[in-house]
Design a protein that fits this description.
By secondary structure, this protein is of the alpha+beta class. It has helices spanning about 15-20, 80-90, 120-125, 130-145, 155-160, 165-180, 185-195, 235-250, 255-270, 275-295, 305-320, 330-345, and strands spanning about 35, 45-50, 55-60, 100-105, 110, 120, 200-205, 210-215, 220, 230. The chain has two domains: about 5-110, Phosphorylase Kinase, domain 1; about 120-345, Alpha-Beta Complex (Aminoglycoside 3'-phosphotransferase, Chain: A, domain 2), CATH 3.90.1200. The protein is built from twelve helices and ten strands. The strands form three sheets. The chain has a five-stranded antiparallel beta sheet with strand order 1-2-3-5-4, covered by helices on one side. The protein has a three-stranded antiparallel beta sheet with strand order 6-8-9.
């Protein structure tokens, strides 16, 4: 029956209130306000506004993700996120929310809500609010994550589990895309193998503008359910695909998006440990092409692009897959020339 702890659905207010009271996470007479937050495909997410205390955000992992194609993953991945949140708190401090509690029976994670006012960076970018400064902060933040192994050697063992990275990234982004784009199948399957072998740094796995909140001109990083010790170049490719997608979607702001992409990459390299620089240069090019293809033809395409735009994004990547550029700056230059040709035809 709805409202019992055994069947808690945090998006249902009655069920959530009963759950919080019975587990004594809140007082029996406390009546917080609940707001279901949208935007994610893999979790239920609810803002809990508490008059007598700090506001919280609760997340509950879904077994079936909210996308058009069938995509499943164990809800137990929320506990990887909980561990990621605790460790990233040590690495990044206030650049991530603070861990509050986790419930392993109901696959619920609670963290502090981001301070207000804040703005989702993806939403801001889609409104044309570009900022090279934010791109540089984005690069600096990622370098801190990747550099963390130098200070915390235990991260290698703590995040050795890669199951959810396989289920939520390698299969849906690279494996599925290989089945949809035969011209890139060999490239993608080879990259899957290479990625599995590369274990150099703590890798976020979901590093993108949608998981960044802007508050007082600083960045707050969210969503850590595929954190693992692996190939740091994946984070570069995953994030840069978003800049390329938006450069296609908003041609009036194309130059600014590509300027941000260059600033992001150069700032990241400048802050990265010299020992790691050599491990990311070439793979970052491959992952950027692969993630760009995946955002056009994978299980989770960029939702703001229409079918024709996704075809254009796919074509951009396919022009470079057979002979990838040696450097990421060159890839961005070639992408700019391709996009200029697309927009000249419009």
């Amino acid at each position: 029956m709805t409202g019992t702890v055994s069947e808690v659905n945090i998006e249902d207010p009655k069920s959530l209130l009963t759950y919080l009271r019975e587990r004594r996470f809140i007082a029996g007479d406390e009546c917080p306000r609940f707001e279901v937050l949208s935007g994610g495909v893999s979790n239920r997410t609810v803002l809990v506004q508490r008059a007598p205390g700090e506001d919280w955000v609760l997340k509950q992992a879904l077994a079936k993700l909210r996308v058009q194609v069938d995509w499943y993953s164990s809800p137990e991945r929320i506990h990887i996120e909980a561990k990621g949140l605790r460790w990233l708190g040590k690495v990044l401090g206030s650049a991530v929310p603070r861990f509050v509690f986790e419930d392993k029976d109901h696959h619920v994670l609670c963290m502090t809500a981001a301070p207000g006012p804040h703005e989702n960076w993806k939403v801001a970018l889609l409104q044309g609010k570009t900022s090279v400064r934010h791109a540089r902060l984005f690069g600096r933040l990622l370098a801190r994550i990747h550099n963390a192994i130098a200070e915390f050697s235990e991260l290698r063992a703590e995040f050795a589990e890669r199951r959810y990275f396989e289920e939520l990234r390698l299969e849906p982004y690279y494996g599925f895309t290989a089945s949809q784009v035969p011209a890139a199948a060999a490239f993608l399957r080879a990259l899957i193998h290479e990625t599995r072998e590369r274990k150099y740094a703590l890798t976020h796995g979901d590093y993108s503008p949608k998981n960044i909140l802007l508050h007082n001109d600083r960045l707050i990083l969210l969503d850590h359910e595929v954190v693992h010790f692996g190939d740091p170049a994946f984070d570069i490719g995953f994030s840069l695909a978003h800049f390329l997608g938006k450069a296609l979607y908003l041609p009036a702001h194309r130059t600014n998006f590509l300027r941000m992409a260059r600033a992001y990459w150069q700032t990241y390299l400048g802050d990265l440990s010299p020992q790691l620089v050599a491990t990311v240069r070439e793979p970052a090019v491959k992952h950027t092409l692969a993630c760009t293809l995946a955002r056009a033809a994978g299980r989770s395409p960029l939702e703001y692009l229409d079918a024709a735009e996704r075809q254009e994004l796919q074509a951009l990547a396919l022009t470079l897959v057979d002979k990838p550029p040696a450097e990421l700056d060159e890839l961005i230059d070639q992408a700019e020339r391709f996009l200029e040709g697309v927009h000249d035809q419009d």
